[in-house]
From TrEMBL, chains A, B:
Molecular function via GO: aldehyde-lyase activity; magnesium ion binding
Stored PANTHER family: PHOSPHOKETOLASE-RELATED
Annotated organism of origin: Streptomyces uncialis
PROSITE patterns: PHOSPHOKETOLASE_1, PHOSPHOKETOLASE_2
Protein name: Probable phosphoketolase
Length: 797, 797
């Protein structure tokens, strides 16, 4: 380690420095205690094997650094009366964040059985990473956290999401040098090009270079310092370095650096808010270089541990069986001088507590980290203002997402003062036809402006960046701190955030079980430019599997909607935007498509989630009582179009066949009642699909998803599903459905193949259908367009 | 646009500059022609609406920049006799890369019907983005490409993968400023910390700042230039700028910059290879700033188009219907002076062709872009050298991935001179127990070295970086250029690359249908630290859904294996490493687990993919002929353990019950024979699972995956699947299976619940099983460990 760069004159008095050091030692002691001890928490007797947990789990390496940051943030918050939140990127250092929460009292306030005394300390220790206890990572259970300490990469984008529209909030963000190697984190630095110093809060990144990952040095820690500084300046930041391994010197340097950083942030914000600075500030970044596993065992079994990757998890692993390890652990714990830090009842001493802020200023108590406390209902305009009129079904065309754009613009307008609604997306808001938003707001942009620019503004509340990771992370941070939003994306590219949505769903699933965590607004996806409409892009842009991905996760948190037209999209979005603690995935087209339902019908249909479209079938005409001969089911806009066209063909050519058309909007309705809160009972399901009649189901995505949802239903064996089966290229929309056997003609053939006893007219019709498909192939190769009878088709009922 | 920085003295003679400009104009002409024309390719007559395609699709905006780069790479390759490959990050600019391929003749050599004359030009134009034609993006169909032009973010990591172990290869990589905003790209810059100037080739990034994405300015294009330079220097590069919109000046600047860059690369490599430079070089990066849609229509319908986002796709959209658009298109096309570029028969003139390299030096003809041409079989040591002895089943414990590590080390040893095998992973190779590799190689590392470092070397062939995106991209680039490799990852985090593997699978699926593309080595995943073993990490690290994700994709490309022990893992890996053109996902544990099969048995079992483990069941003992009363099926190491323990309980307590144990290694065996090449026929399936007996299936992942694979099988309705259902926390392995109802006791209860007529002893056994589960819950809360009878269990047969 190079020497600490001691500031010109110490910023801390000896008393202050001693108090900060005491707090830091206390936190370190508590972190080690959590990893190792199940008894004797205050070391009131010599350490014995039976005091040690049988399974040693947890991550020590990052903990002393996190404890240092927390200690110094406490001081700064207290001195400056800050509203602050901290995102702990190395959230696997759960012992550190838990230790600090216990020290500041928020842990005991949240979990009254874990008192701030010896008994509570014993519980704090034992519960850690213990079956039935608390996870070893920072998780929803940890007061003050909005960030799961699992998969790395998302701390900085979460921090920015939290800071947006929170002008008084400071969001500190500790970024480990391991995490800094991930793509999402590397991209997140540029979030500062989207942060308005006037209307948003500040983000203070603290890059913690402790040098090692699980088994390797880190890239950034081994850069020459000038190269690292170039990098951080290139990211738009001015670096402030704190380097060292001598605690008191590091305390002075850290306090000085933090003061400098906060002063600069204050200056930048004041200048911007007084209109004196049109430039994007060069925000500070702290670079904290301290040893991995600092203050832990230097050498174990002859190998260096402190300041190497060997301190990543549990530095001493054989404590129960190896007396030398046990001795080293006791020495390590006693090196913090616990008797100076805790009184005989286990309460932290006044010195330890002297640097702590109070009330909601404590990092574990900020309401921003329990966003539901701050959440207000969204003002959603009456849908009537945006619905499309449907005088005649299947004749007028609208772009569903454009209609939705009007509604979103209304919400954006009505939140102009509250500023608690944002729309994020990777450069596609206009492409996705949501550009009505630009009538009331703009795209956030803090970069250079040119005369030709349109719809950019420093205070815009549409966020566009060509990174789905940033969009997702910003929105998660925004929602978790009590606001609302929508993520619009091309359907195929939603997979980019598969892993992020996993973690958010897991967060919500756990948070819902914690009574003190208040419900937050749902994470709403609008997936468009979907698999069936990739004329410009082709095969590489075709993937409807995001739905499959989320439907693997906890049912209580996940909803998937496939509204078939503009008005159903409105009704669905309205529902999603009002919901709480969910992930709602809405798949809808942006291309002109037919209107099927009036707003009232759409509302009723969406409320049911799935229902018979009587007007589209022939059940009544053929026989009112016997039920259908066949069910044509559909989910998704393109499958609905093809099913309706198929239903029309059947009505014309086989009028004696009783066809029922069922449309499904809410995919979870198909699931068993016991497995999803929206699942239909078998009685409901059979009433809709019949228990025994053939069902030809045209589905938007991979067909086997339907099978996995309905395999327990009585009618499953009779259900034949058509969907996307990875066939595609750059071609017309109709050619796409033909290539995947989802087209109207194929569906008619499917019906004929499945309904017994149809007779000779059906045989002829089947052949005619096959002939049209053959004709299609020849026509499209020649003309590059669809058959006129397809291109000009409208519903004639 | 600021002025071009003209070099001190022009590097190109007037003749050279004119020739490059002619080639560039020709490529631009051909790019526009592909987007618009279906007839009159040489403009031999005035342009009429019927010459225009009915659907105008494609991306113009990036094309002139790509054409410029290709033109200048041609010159440099020819002048310097380079082996070069180019990765086209803005691969949506398909028209540009296709145009260049046609000009250099590789397109006609690959597709003889598209001749390099007027007829061929007409075909080139019409086929583009036309049904039955070619995709609008750079795709496998494009000669010289290894990079799909679909989802953005992966160009630079692909480029590095291609350069590894190819010391004579120059890999140019065009990075669009849109793509540069993505996380994976942002992280990819640091790949230079892993590139050995001695044994690897060079990567020359060309950052193309044309200023706009689909609808927005780009972040990097709006940075102050000093900030951008800081960023690129921070990435370890020395920037060389080429800026302008006046073609001849840009040609001079581009030629000068490219010469400078290539000279520097040459110097760095020479110094390193002569042992004169232990430092990581500061590799050059070209920053090319030219207008988006350069040379296209400046203004359309009164709005600026060139040099704005409006030129992203099709600048003139109404050409068939709007005479002014038609006039502008003709003017635009004629602005390239096609009569100077093509002779009357449509062949490019000598001037246009004068800058082209020859033979395999042409970018479209490099064998590195058709890696199968260069691929050699991997030397895989005899498995006998690494297999574990199994004298008694289920008694000895091995860490399966550690056993695999020995095999991988053998391969690594035997490829030491060939250098065509790499293992990539995010900082987890040792954690995943593959550290035998370090006996024969090391981790690639070009950063600073410290005394405490272990297993790092400049020429190491294990690649570790805390970015799954980089691991995946490096490996894809490596495989696509004809080498072999394996990606080891924690199971849950494989989802990080969901979207990347989609694109790779789509690439393979398409490439397999192109006879000229030779098979490449498969992309092999080892997923470990799996869902059932997350003691250190807990809920956030639990997700077995990567398998579900890949099984949605084209069956001919995808294989999923769940070897239940060390020897089956060896046999599976051996098979995967020999395979071609596949994505193999192998899920296997790293924790000590029981050995079940000898190597010979493992080979036979893996060859079958699924089979009866007769020694584990009681079928023979009870009755040799009648078949089983119940089938206990399992897939995955932990489910196999629980099934065997359940089978043992049944054997002891209900010896009269005929139990069959079936283990599935190859998940595709479950799929219908017609849907996957490995799928069992119904006859085979029924012989294994019975058509009518209860099946209790313990599966590693989400249980509904099994249902979606087997829903057409006769026995499906009788099949009850247990698996992971999103229940978990930091706890013991056995508690995990209990929480998810996959434990041995629950499986016994499931059997009792499903087999009719078992009688009173079964009722008692069921109660006893429930009692053990209750006892487990109490015990673990108290002790933090598993019940002794579980912890000490071994198979007694």
């Amino acid at each position: 380690m190079p020497d600490v760069r001691i500031p010109a004159s110490p910023v801390l008095t000896d008393t202050e420095a001693a108090a900060l050091d005491a707090h830091w030692r206390a936190a370190n002691y508590l972190a080690v205690g959590q990893i190792y001890l199940m008894a004797n928490p205050l070391l009131t007797e010599p350490l014995r094997p039976e005091h040690i947990k049988p399974r040693l789990l947890g991550h020590w390496g990052t903990s002393p650094g996190l404890n240092l940051v927390h200690t110094h943030l406490n001081r700064a918050i207290r001195d400056r009366d800050l509203d602050a939140l901290c995102v702990w990127g190395p959230g696997h250092g759960g012992p550190a964040v838990l230790a600090n929460s216990w020290l500041e009292g928020t842990y005991s306030e949240t979990y009254p059985d874990v008192t701030r005394d010896a008994d509570g300390m014993a519980r704090l220790f034992k519960q850690f990473s213990f079956p039935g206890g608390v996870p070893s990572h920072v998780a929803p259970e940890v007061p003050g956290s909005i960030h799961e300490g699992g998969e790395l990469g998302y701390s900085l984008t979460h921090a920015y999401g939290a800071a947006l529209d929170n002008p008084r909030l400071l969001v500190a963000c500790v970024i480990g040098d391991g995490e800094a190697e991930t793509g999402p984190l590397a991209a997140s630095w540029h979030s500062n090009k989207f942060l308005d110093p006037v209307r948003d809060g500040a983000v203070l990144p603290i890059l913690h270079l402790n040098g090692y990952k699980i088994g390797n040095p880190t890239v950034l820690s081994r850069l020459p310092e000038d190269e690292l500084d170039d990098l951080l300046r290139g990211y738009g930041h001015e670096p402030l370095h704190v380097t060292g391994d001598e605690p008191l010197a590091v305390h002075q340097a850290m306090a000085a650096a933090l003061d400098t950083a906060l002063d600069r942030i204050d200056t930048f914000q004041r200048q911007a808010r007084e209109g004196r600075s049109p430039e994007r500030p060069r925000w500070p970044v702290l670079v904290l270089r301290t040893p991995k596993g600092w203050t832990g065992p230097a050498v174990v079994d002859g190998l260096p541990v402190e300041n190497t990757w060997r301190s990543h998890q549990v530095p001493l692993t054989q404590v129960r069986d190896n007396p030398e390890h046990l001795r080293q652990l006791e020495q390590w714990l006693r090196s913090y001088r616990p008797e100076e830090l805790f009184d005989p009842t286990g309460r932290p001493t006044a010195q330890v507590l002297s640097c702590l802020p109070e009330g909601e200023h404590r990092l574990g108590a900020t309401p921003h980290a329990n966003g539901g406390l701050l959440l207000r209902d969204l003002p959603i305009p009456p849908l009537e203002e945006h619905a499309v009129p449907v005088d005649k079904r299947g004749n007028a065309l609208h772009e569903p997402t454009r209609v939705l754009g009007g509604l979103l613009a209304g919400i954006m307008r009505d939140t102009a003062r509250r500023r608690d609604f944002r729309v994020v997306g990777p450069d596609e808001t206009a492409s996705n036809r949501l550009d009505a938003l630009y009538e009331v707001t703009a795209k956030a942009w803090q970069g250079e402006y040119l005369d030709t620019d349109e719809n950019l503004a420093r205070d815009g509340r549409v966020m566009e960046v060509l990174s789905e990771h940033l969009c997702q992370g910003w929105l998660e941070g925004y929602l978790l701190t009590g606001r609302h939003g929508l993520f619009s994306s091309y359907e195929a590219f939603a997979h980019i955030v598969d892993s992020m949505v996993n973690q958010h769903i897991k967060w919500l699933r756990t948070a819902r079980r914690l009574p003190w965590r208040r419900p937050i607004a749902s994470l709403n996806y609008l997936l468009t430019s979907h698999v069936w409409r990739q004329d410009h892009n082709g095969f590489s842009h075709q993937d409807p599997g995001f739905v499959d991905h989320v439907l693997n996760k906890s049912p209580e948190v996940v909803r998937v909607y496939l509204p078939p037209d503009a008005n159903t999209l409105l009704a669905t979005a309205d529902h999603a935007l009002r919901s709480r603690d969910l992930v709602n995935v809405i798949v809808a087209g942006k291309q002109p498509s037919f209107d099927w339902l009036t707003l009232d019908e759409a509302r009723a249909h969406c409320a049911r989630g799935a229902g018979v479209w009587q007007w589209a079938g022939t059940e009544e005409a053929v026989d009112g009582d016997d039920g259908p001969d066949v069910v044509l089911a559909c989910a998704g806009d393109v499958p609905t179009l093809e099913v309706l066209a198929a239903a029309e063909l059947l009505r014309h050519h086989l009028p004696e066949l009783a066809v029922r058309v069922v449309n499904v909007v809410d995919m979870a309705r198909l699931m068993p009642h016991g497995e999803h809160p929206h699942g239909m009972t078998d009685f409901e399901y059979d009433a809709l699909f019949t228990p025994d009649k053939p069902v030809v189901f045209a589905y938007h995505g991979y067909p086997w998803l339907i099978h996995r949802l309905i395999y327990r239903r009585a009618g499953h064996a009779q259900t034949h599903v058509r969907g996307y089966k990875e066939e595609g290229t750059t071609t017309t929309p109709f050619d796409m459905v033909v290539r995947n056997d989802l087209d109207r003609y194929r569906l008619v053939m499917d019906v004929i193949d499945r309904v017994p006893g149809l007779g000779v007219r059906a045989v002829a019709l089947r052949q005619a259908m096959a002939d049209v498909r053959t004709r299609h192939h020849a026509w499209i190769r020649e003309h590059g367009t669809d058959l006129p009878e397809v291109a000009d088709w409208t519903w004639t009922g």
